[in-house]
Amino acid sequence: MPHYLWKGVNVYGHPLEGAVESPSIENVLEDLRKNDVFRVRFNRIFAYRLQTPLRKEYLVLFLNQFHRLLVSGLELVDCLNFVIRYQTNTFFCYILCALREDIQQGKSMTEAFQRHKLCFPPIFIHLIEVAERSDNLEKIIREMLDFFSFQERFSRERRKLLTYPVIVSGIAFFLFLGIILFVIPTFKTLFISQGSELPVTTRGMIFLSDSLRYTPEYWGIVSLALIAGAVFLFRYLDWSRILLLIPGFRSVEKSIHLLFYARSMLIMLKSGIKLRESLSLAETLFPVRLQKEIREVHQQIDFGVSLVDAYGSSTNFPPVFVHLVAVGESSGHLVPTFERIAVLYQEKLERRMNLINSLIEPLFTVVLAMGILLVLLSIYLPIFDFAGRI
């Protein structure tokens, strides 16, 4: 059944909005008019969107606004009303309206969020449940805000590492394309008139230029296939595998996973979630390709294996991680242990990201210089050869 977000005004001109599931817009519109809602606009929410996780920045923004409103003493529904009113993303606005209506109908926050469990991280929904049970919503919302803000900040820093290479590569590509299409044809007649054998690089440039100019349809098909393949890789496959091909990213990715894992264990254990549940939820922060291996940790604990032995049996946890867990388990203080682990990997990660940032620019400068040298040699070697024979 189609889902819609509607927005309108009441008889006093005050804006209203809501989420509805109906086979016909006309029926919804008629019901709204009976309730004195006018100037109604509808936005359809497609079913596949309801199975798509929310972007972290929207979740952080929601938690930030929601926490401030809770601290100010507003009721739960009033907090949601305020957040909805200033929400610009249509899909997230629909989710929030649906949550508000479920709560107004008497459902708990946990039940309301469970209806949209594919849109929210499992750890988020579980912590909401813990917050309701412990009647400590403000504190746990604050803890979640810190955790997801931290996660979003490091994800943003990781994307920044790719910004410079992507921009420089794009500019270099279009400059090279311009040379191939407009410069090489100018020299082609001169090169051929010499009657001597051309260097391999020059012959390659001429072949590529003729191919692009006289058979562009084939290159168009190849380009579309490459774009479709890239979209498929980034959207449907584990794109972190691609990042691991970049030098230095493997250590950065591993440190990020361990950092998020330690912080998630910290927030869950502090909130009162049992160790077994915390381990099960924290493993979802690893890529899909690693989750099966990480799952063995809590499975071993189910069979009576100690926490340190379970971590030690997995190659995804380095010796320093296992050693700190051993100290925390022996002393019975796992919360400060995971806090120390988080601080350790945060410092380590910041050092590595700064190092990669400092190396990316000179490395790309060298690569670009080599590419420019190759193009110049392809053009000027035949000219030098021709000048030497005069």
Question: In words, what does this structure look like?
Answer:
- With 390 residues, the protein is mostly helical.
- The protein has a domain at 3-120: Type II secretion system (T2SS), domain F (Receptor-associated Protein, Up-down Bundle), CATH 1.20.81.
- It is built from 16 helices and three strands.
- It has helices spanning 25-34, 56-71, 76-85, 90-104, 109-114, 122-134, 137-193, 200-214, 216-236, 240-243, 249-270, 275-282, 288-302, 307-312, 319-331, 334-389; strands spanning 3-9, 15-21, 38-45.
- The protein has a three-stranded antiparallel beta sheet, sandwiched between helices.
- The longest helix has 57 residues, at 137-193.
- The radius of gyration is 29 Å and the shape is flat.
- The model has no long low-confidence stretch (mean pLDDT 83).
Tertiary shape: flat
Class inferred from helices and paired strands: mainly alpha
- Judging by the overall fold, what is the CATH architecture of the domain at 3-120? Up-down Bundle
Q: How many DSSP helices?
A: 16
Report on the biggest sheet: 3 strands, antiparallel
Instruction: Determine the mean pLDDT.
Output: 83
- Give the N-terminus to C-terminus distance in angstroms: 81 Å
Q: Please provide the ordered H/E string of secondary-structure elements.
A: EEHEHHHHHHHHHHHHHHH
Q: Walk across the major sheet and give the strand order.
A: 2-1-3
Strand proportion, as a percent range, falls in 5-15%
Radius of gyration: 29 Å
Find the count of extended strands (DSSP E, 2+ residues). Answer: 3
Helix content: over 70%
- Here the CATH topology of the domain at 3-120 equals Receptor-associated Protein
Low-confidence stretches: none
According to CATH, the homologous superfamily of the domain at 3-120 is Type II secretion system (T2SS), domain F
Any idea of the CATH class of the domain at 3-120? Answer: Mainly Alpha
